[in-house]
Design goal:
- This protein is an alpha+beta fold.
- It has one domain: Gcn5-related N-acetyltransferase (GNAT) (Aminopeptidase).
- Helix content is 32%, strand content 30%.
- It contains 5 helices and 8 strands; from the N terminus they run ββαααβββαβαββ.
- Helix 1 packs across helix 3.
- The radius of gyration is 15 Å and the shape is globular.
- The chain starts with a strand and ends in a 10-residue tail after the last strand.
- The relative contact order is 0.15.
């Protein structure tokens, strides 16, 4: 599975991505996405899990965001077809770029690509959930055409701002 818009490519994470992922991890990724610093063992296990999910048609689709002729790993984006805070027909979108690749519009491109993929899988809506202090992630959601969709608390009490996109709406940015 490979998705591309001519600038970036998205393809499933593979074991060879582990080293680049660990090298690209910084305080922002740990704070907003993973919740703790990665270890080689943990990243290897996660990538194996992602491969198993792809093979089994599971609820997780994790992609590497790749840039350039050599398809350098610039970050990750994943879809969760079953997650806390979703209603039937929705998919959760989560993403993170490594520091060297931020500020270039790559996360927005990746969100649009995975939303097109999700729409093709029959999903009716996409949701991006971010902590209120994560202005960069909220800006990506808005640039990708997502609208504010309220707030909610997770089971552990974390407040999240929700951004939603109707993937069936005529003119949806995900379908263009």
């Amino acid at each position: 599975m490979k998705l591309s818009d001519g600038v970036i490519a998205l393809s499933p994470l593979v074991p060879a991505d582990a080293e680049a992922h660990l090298a690209g991890e910084d305080e922002q990724l740990v704070r907003w996405l993973s919740g703790g610093p990665g270890t080689r063992e943990g990243v290897d296990a996660y990538i194996r899990h992602c491969g198993e999910q792809w093979a089994a048609g599971g609820s997780l689709r994790a992609f590497g965001i790749r840039v350039g002729v050599g398809e350098t790993l610039a970050g990750t984006i994943d879809l969760r077809f079953a997650a806390e805070g979703l209603t039937r027909g929705q998919v959760n979108v989560a993403y993170g770029l490594y520091p060297a690749w931020r500020g270039r519009g790559l996360a927005t491109r990746a969100v649009l690509l995975v939303c097109r993929y999700a729409a093709g899988e029959g999903v009716s809506g996409a949701v991006i959930q971010v902590e209120p202090g994560n202005a960069a992630s909220a800006a990506v959601a808005r640039r990708a055409g997502f609208a504010p969709g309220g707030q909610r608390f997770t089971e552990d009490g974390t407040l999240l701002d929700r951004y939603v996109l109707d993937l069936r709406a005529p003119g949806s940015t995900a379908l263009q």
